[in-house]
Design goal:
The complex is a heterotrimer of chains A (306), B (361) and C (299).
Chain A lengths: L1 H25 L6 H4 L7 H11 L5 H13 L13 H36 L4 H15 L2 H15 L11 H31 L2 H8 L4 H38 L5 H10 L3 H29 L1 H4 L3
Helix pairs in contact in A: 1-12, 5-6, 5-8, 5-10, 5-12, 6-8, 7-8, 7-10, 8-10, 10-11, 10-12, 11-12
Chain B lengths: L4 E14 L2 E14 L3 E5 L6 H8 L8 E10 L7 E2 L5 H7 L4 E4 L13 H12 L4 H14 L5 H4 L9 H13 L5 E5 L7 H17 L3 E6 L2 H7 L2 E6 L2 E7 H6 L4 H8 L2 H4 L33 H5 L5 E2 L14 E2 L3 E2 L4 E2 L19
Parallel strand pairs in B: 3-8, 3-9, 6-7, 7-8
Antiparallel strand pairs in B: 1-2, 1-4, 4-5, 9-10, 10-12, 11-12, 13-14
Helix pairs in contact in B: 3-4, 3-6, 4-6, 6-7
Chain C lengths: L1 H9 L3 H11 L1 H23 L37 H37 L1 H16 L2 H12 L3 H11 L1 H18 L1 H7 L4 H37 L11 H9 L7 H28 L1 H7 L1
Helix pairs in contact in C: 3-4, 3-12, 4-5, 4-7, 4-8, 4-10, 4-12, 5-8, 6-7, 8-10, 10-11, 10-12, 11-12, 12-13
Classes of the chains: A mainly alpha (306), B alpha/beta (361), C mainly alpha (299).
The complex binds adenosine-5'-triphosphate and magnesium ion (MG).
Adenosine-5'-triphosphate binds next to strand 1, strand 2 and helix 1 of chain B.
Chain lengths: 306, 361, 299
Amino acid sequence: MQRYLFTRVIQSGLLMLGVLVITFFMVRLTGDPARTMVPRDASPERVEQMRVAMGFDDPLIIQFARYVGGAVRGDFGQSLHYRAPSMRLVLERVPATIQLTLAALGFALLFSVPLGIIGGSRPGTIWDTLARGFGLLGQTVPNFWLALMLIVVFSVELRWFPTFGRSGFASVVLPAVALGFFPLGQFTRLIRSAVLEVRSEDYIRTAYSKGIEEWQVLSRHIFRNVSITLVSILGVQFGYMLGGSIYIESIFAWPGIGRMINEAVQARDFPLVQAIAVFSAGFVVVLNLLTDIAYALIDPRIRYED
Amino acid sequence: MTGDTVLQVRNLAVEFDSIDGTVHAVNNVSFDLKRGQTLGVVGESGSGKSVSMMSLLRLIAEPPGKITSGSAVFLPRNGEPVDLLQLPKRWLARIRGDRIGFVFQDPMSSLNPLMTVGEQIAESVRKHTELQGSVCRDRAVELLEHVGIPGAAERYNNYPHQFSGGMRQRVMIAIAIACNPDIIIADEPTTALDVTVQAEIVDRMQKLTKELSISVIWISHDLGVVAGIADVLMVMYGGSVVERGEISRVYSHPRHPYTIGLLGALPKLGAAQKRLVNIGGSPPSLFSPPRQCAFAARCPWVFDRCKAERPPLFFATGSHSEDPSAHGHVTACFYDLEKDRRRDPDETGIDVTAFEVGQQG
Amino acid sequence: MRIDALDQENVRSPFQRALRIVLRDKTGLIGVFLFGTVLFCAVFAAYIVPHSPIEQNLRISRQPPGWHEAGDWEYPLGTDNLGRDMLSRIIYGSRVSLTVGFFGVLIAMSIGMLLGLVAGYLGGTIDNVIMGVANLFLAIPYLLLVVVVAAVLGRSLINVILIFGFTNAPLFVRITRGEVLRIRKSGYVESAVSLGAKPGRIIFGHILPNLIGPLLTVATFEMSGMIFYEAGLGFLGLSVPPGIPSWGNMLAAGRQYIQFSPWIAAFPGLAIVFTSLGMNLLGDWLRDVLDPRMRRSAS
Ligand SMILES: Nc1ncnc2c1ncn2[C@@H]1O[C@H](COP(=O)(O)OP(=O)(O)OP(=O)(O)O)[C@@H](O)[C@H]1O
Ligand SMILES: [Mg+2]
């Protein structure tokens, strides 16, 4: 267990180093980062000014050392647009995004868990069809379009929820549904197929042979085993939702980091973009580490290793 | 003590719907099980041993499986006889694990890896008795001790992967005997174990079931094991019972060509056999509905009738009893091996349904 | 002998089996139909559109669909904010989507197979490096990566294809490498090598045939994903230039008029749902038919 933890932490560290490399080169893809960071119609003097200000005329290795050195201290330079430390701006926006993501996750779990379990344990029934249908829809309905359609129906026509902003419970409903729809489908698919698979395990037959009734077999034997699979993809789904929040937060004017990415990209504020990217990746890496640990804690086969 | 019947199975048939066609896994299987008796079930892989016994408690997957006919009347020590195949699921759950225990072949996969072994035993106790909480736990520890797990109290909290194969199988046995059942169905309980552990498990099963006078259905590939423990032997082939009778009698006077082949493969008894049969060819396909003798393609005594109709059970000549439920020696073969001639077309087979026990509906 | 003959009658032939899989899963047929429709639109767009997709006519801007009381069946799905026929633009939009999907997958698959073969075949450090980089790409939120790179590179069809081609390669690397390792472990590569077979023969004779099933299945899902993400980029104004009719660009335009002219955003979105539904059904079906190892989990 300790050795497992240790290797996982080292791996995560390496991954973060890789993230720094990618985000460093990401803004230098065109070969002329100064040009990238000014408006398209900027004068050559303006470009030159930017080049000097950002240190783009130094050797690449120096630039990289500076970048990594700053990054470990949490310093990603000044945001070009807001004229404030990038990381501070990101951290200010984090709570809103976490709130939205958790709400979306809650929505997804609320529907996918019962749907996946019933569908998986009753293959071929209407419930199964429903589970498969939602699994498919989650993958095929784009969340940015779903968000717009939700606004049309529930804000414009029915006036149940506000169109945008972050003010109280009602304002989080539509963005959470739009953002949670894809994970809803993923979870439903995953839970359904996990239930189908666990259902045919020998130990489930043993449970039935003991006279345990179906709902108890489901809750005590099947669900415990399925929850492991669920935990293992939580990290990945969080990463997805961070990406999806770019659309959803922009559409609903939700003041989180997703909307900030869009704004930063449109304003060509790349120091800020880098800060967001490293933060998000770090978030996902840490989350994956945590889910792996949780996984190891739930599963005695890993817990008791060496 | 041996005498009254605890289980009476009649004309059991099970099919599976598969992508390649309908598998007729079990055809017209009938047998009786007496109290305190051990019934050995042998036959090659795929002959329907597991499916027929598991379908008694409806433990096969439905769908694709389907019990198409038959009855399985269970006569508990105290209580009314019931047909297990007609019982609603909720009532069946009260019999499973309580009156009829199961031990499965593969102890590696038959226990839930995420639950402590103690909890898995206690689960059954809690379900079928009034015991609760720590009393229930004590009972589980007691059962663990009973099946010979050293340090049972500490071992209660272990997970299956911390146990060896033999120990896991002992846990399975503890689960099976937890509620002092009438019957234990053991589906090749020793096949997955080392030879040394096998003997240990066989001994323990025998001791426990004799002690509690539990009837046992012991499915096996290994005629040697069965010879040591069974009172009655049932030989299955291609989903049907081909021969059945008291074990000493079947071993000394096998009356079905398949049984002869099977015993011929057993070195100890092979010498005593007059005519050795080498079972050539491959197992029968179960896709065709049972319209002929399943063994016809591999049988050295085969003649045209074997391919035209399905042989019913006949009394073997010299059978001590002409009552199949009293384990008269029966064989499903049109060739009378004792007299070494074909049976007369007008010699009638046994109508098993004529031998009824009890007054069930 | 008679028994064998009887058995033959009762066992289904391979053809019957394939037919049974198709019929049991009618959704596969629906998938073929949906995808076929989109493909047809993309190929024959020029011949089937009722109007020009780019010609503006401000006098009829934001006209509702034909069935609406204020609508006109001349423009069955209505017109957009610049008076362009929605139906014609959606038909043309399928070209952008399918082009991005097709070439994106082609590039991703080529890179992925090459690196996967190298990683699986050579093993050791090279394997570790390739797989390390592949996993790295999976650590960064995918959409974020794509959005930023698209913003850096600027709006063009080629850029979008390249972005998707490169960022989706890791999945194909994984599949190819997994298959190579599986086949290597099975031992018959060793025996083929010991018999003097050249790497080329092993790759083309043993490894690639086994890869076709899984790769084709994944390619279908990936293509659907790229169509999805291309529209998303378009929605943020980061995909093909604004003049080109693409579903993403149309959605971006429709977003501004969502309150009073919701159809401008609704129809391109429906087109995306239609397409990716078709491709997902097709992918599920392909997996069932081509890859027996995955069949159990699918049905
Ligand atoms: N779920 C299923 N779907 C289709 N066919 C099945 C299924 N389960 C069992 N069968 C078929 O039923 C037949 C009998 O199987 P069964 O497991 O009873 O054999 P067995 O005598 O117990 O063999 P073994 O000694 O290998 O355990 C086999 O031909 C098998 O293919
Ligand atoms: Mg079996």
